[in-house]
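Why predict the complex rather than its parts? Because the way molecules touch one another can change local conformation, and only a joint prediction can capture that. The input here totals 670 residues.
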Amino acid sequence: MSKGLFRISPGFEDVMPAEYKELVTNGPYGRDLGVKDLGTFKELIEEHPLCAGCAEALALRLILASLPSPEDTVIVGSTGCSSLLFTQVAVQNIHSLFGNQNAVATGLKRALRLRFPDKVKDVVVIAGDGATVDIGLDMVMQSWFRRELITTIMLDNEVYANTGGQESGMSPQGAVLYMAPLGKKFPKVNLPEIAREAGCAYVATISPALPRRLGKVVRRAILVAREIGPSYVQVFCPCPTNFKWPSAQVLQKIRDRQKEGIFKVREYVSPEAEAYLAGLEVERQHDEQE
Amino acid sequence: MTTQQVVAPEHLFFEAERERQFMTGSEAVREAIKRANVDMAISYPITPQSESMHLVGDIYAQGYLKEYFRGESEFAVMAAVAGAAMGGVRVFTATAGPGTLRAFEMFPTWAGARLPVVCAFMTRGVNSPLTIQPDTIEMAFLLDTGILMFHAENAQDLYDMILKAFVIAEQTDVHIPVGVFVDGFFVTHTREEVATAPADLKLPPYNPYSAPVPVMDMESVPVRQMRDPFVMKSNFISYAAHASWQQEILAAQERARKHVRRYLGGLLEAEHPEAAVLVVAAGTAVSQGREAVAAARREGLEVGLIKLKSLRPFPREEIRTLARQARALIVPEFNRVGWLAREIKSVVEDTTKVIDAPRVFGGMTMPPDLILAQIRRCCA
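Output of the joint prediction:
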């Protein structure tokens, strides 16, 4: 998308909504901004209806601030809490059905490659843990097997939150939730390992308690998916509403879990992806020097 | 690959000189797709559909399509097709029976998302017990999904209807999916003469910006656009938004009527419509109906044949008018439930005129004698 495309026509300045005008004058399109720049530009997200203290909402805010080319990014979501927020996001995004996000993204990415052979259009899947590891796991993994050039981001809030707090494959073992009245009988699914084995060139686990690192991880994942292969980012953002935590304590809970070693920040980069990212870094430094 | 020239749909359909070739229904699918300027096709095996998508794969390898791959299930294929259509390309896929049911959640989603997907359904019985034989039961399930539904009698219809389906589906005032249905095996695996336009002609490309909904390519304004936003709050505005959207899909089906008339030459075809007894059928049942009608007329019985080509939109007024002067409407079908007879009963003024027989299923062929027996009974 060229910036001229969404410029306001002369004479219409006073009737356009304030948040649209801000996007035009101070939005992130074509500006190479990131988490470190938050507070200095109009973010892609405009309010949202998620709960107070929602770690997923914070994660999404950070993810959206880290898109390398928001002007040429299409997001594919899935049913869940996050989809309630996507109507408020200023990049085009798709909600199709619960669990089919990686199949939709496959068709979309291939279509955009056909239509824009000389331009990179990033397709980023952002879905919850239920959509990714339970109902949609088949299509998530098949898109990796096929080496689709898409980035998959799981918002791991450890529960089916939007439907009222049911056990998911990512709930901690022993957690008593709806549909697990005696506690969950098996551990969190180890999707990062599966992603690596299934063909992802870049895999990372991260949390919004580490905002700069999250920004870097998202950016690297999307860049790798442009040229090298599929990428997967798992964002740990447990749900305060369903786990009954005071909303102000969510980030502390995440840090505690990390200290206890239950949640680990990890990154896997394939040798090809490593070389590619290093090449981009050299290019970037060269550009900065010029 | 032959170098192809883009021509107007009207030229390809009605003016270009046609050559007759002996081919199977599956090969007729290949010949249609070859001329349809399709960008992407996505396949998944299921009997009796598989061969048609093998052949589409062959013409992809020859350069007629830009993209082709095998998906992981019918649900995933229909989802990938949706993503591709939202990305602004012309897509094609095909399935059958159990595959249709596996993918089912996607069909109302295609319609609701206003995607001009064309899908061929090689109809087949559904489980259990397992069968691979022809049966039109899946069509009953699809009637209210919002997709347009054309029913081919033979390979010629299949070739023509697939090509025309793209043009009808992509009209801005329609822009909803079209299912082209054909009775599996009876048509897909048998050979007949099919007249096709020259292979060096093809349809104009799809223009994604003619869609009544935004294309998901980040090339349009305003940028805050979600496909397809939730309308699930518990308030009247949400209910009204969802209700009006559903009505708009039905309205798009209604607006398709004029395009179906223009390109398919009508929603139905009638032979001897003035007769007191009419055989009304769709798909291969039309062929058995035609034989039975010919035999009956040789006996001096006053009987006509109505071939339904479009089931969505349904030829409501046409059937009501024909039924007014007729004494009986005989509806032969290849399924257990008699859904076509039910549809016809829903539009005629006197439902006692509708004979919901004969019906065969489980893969049986339909002896024209069964239809002839009904004709004799009605004419007695």
